[in-house]
């Protein structure tokens, strides 16, 4: 399956006299995990908003493959394959886990042979009337192959036991895994993950790392921003470091970790300082 590269080209976003994103260039290729790090106020969240269409740039453009998507609404970008998870889980709290995934799967219709993770679990789920109502409001109608995708993702993420659980009753860690599952059900070309490890314990974080690698191996491009820099540096193929709205270093994770500007900016920040001073590191 051919997937497009996500590119930020000279993106600028100003709020009065403050330039939150200052001529940022970024490339997130398919089949690779790209990390985005930076201290609070670096412009990471604003850049994410520009990429997803929540905000519009004052200068520059966002490209998905050969298409300029800068003026497209977030829902249109999502249906074109640019799918996001949020810092605060945005599930339907009164729907079951399976029905939340079904809404995600129905948000983007196209062939997706074998499911995102290459599994072949038979479709056995049914949509609740409440989920059907949500889908009707979205102008969508559930189809057999879509429920199969949902069941495959539930199984692959170990969520089958909670498939019929009301999402709003789950703890934060489980909610994040469910939101990640819903994003997978949307069959993304590019997956934007905003603080996906927040609220996860060590075991759940390890599972997330494995899922990220497996997802990228299927050809999906992933852009991740997370304060868990150990997670970021352990899974990414390339990383961008932002400070004051600008990219100050980019490329190989080890090279970025050792960059003098990055090290000086993060010197007083314990998490990155610890990551940058592991045994054997310069």
From TrEMBL:
SUPFAM superfamilies registered for this protein in UniProt: P-loop containing nucleoside triphosphate hydrolases
Cellular component terms (Gene Ontology): plasma membrane
Listed InterPro entries: AAA+_ATPase, ABC_AA/LPS_Transport, ABC_transporter-like_ATP-bd, BCA_ABC_TP_C, P-loop_NTPase
Entry keywords, A to Z: ATP-binding, Nucleotide-binding, Transport
Taxonomy, superkingdom: Bacteria
Keyword Transport attached: yes
Domain spans labelled ABC transporter: 6-269
MF (Gene Ontology): ATP binding; ATP hydrolysis activity
The keyword Nucleotide-binding appears for this protein: yes
Record PANTHER family: CONSERVED COMPONENT OF ABC TRANSPORTER FOR NATURAL AMINO ACIDS-RELATED
Protein's name in the database: ABC-type branched-chain amino acid transport system, ATPase component
Organism: Frankia canadensis
Classification of source organism: Bacteria, Bacillati, Actinomycetota, Actinomycetes, Frankiales
């Amino acid at each position: 399956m051919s997937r497009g590269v996500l590119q930020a080209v000279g993106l600028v976003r100003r709020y009065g006299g403050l330039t939150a994103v200052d001529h940022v260039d970024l490339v997130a290729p398919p089949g690779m995990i790209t990390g985005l790090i930076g201290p609070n106020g670096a412009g990471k969240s604003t850049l994410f908003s520009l990429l997803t269409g929540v905000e519009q740039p004052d200068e520059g453009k966002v490209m998905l493959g050969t298409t300029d998507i800068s003026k497209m609404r977030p829902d249109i970008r999502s249906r074109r394959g640019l799918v996001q998870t949020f810092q605060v889980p945005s599930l339907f709290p009164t729907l079951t886990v399976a029905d939340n995934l079904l809404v995600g799967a129905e948000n983007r219709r196209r062939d997706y042979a074998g499911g995102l993770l290459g599994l072949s679990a038979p479709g056995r789920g049914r949509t609740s009337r409440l989920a059907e109502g949500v889908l009707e409001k979205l102008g969508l109608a559930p189809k057999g192959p879509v429920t199969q995708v949902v069941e495959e993702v539930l199984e692959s993420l170990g969520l089958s036991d909670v498939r019929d659980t009301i999402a709003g009753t789950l703890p934060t860690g489980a909610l994040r895994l469910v939101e990640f599952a819903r994003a997978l059900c949307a069959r993304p070309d590019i997956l934007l993950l905003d603080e996906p490890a927040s609220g996860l314990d060590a075991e759940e974080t390890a599972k997330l790392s494995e899922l990220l690698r497996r997802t990228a191996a299927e050809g999906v491009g992933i852009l991740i921003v997370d304060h868990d820099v150990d997670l970021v540096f352990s899974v990414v193929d390339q990383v961008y470091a932002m400070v004051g709205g600008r990219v100050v270093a980019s490329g190989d994770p080890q090279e970025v970790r050792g960059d003098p500007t990055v090290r000086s900016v993060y010197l007083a920040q314990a998490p990155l300082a610890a990551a940058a001073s592991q045994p054997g590191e310069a």
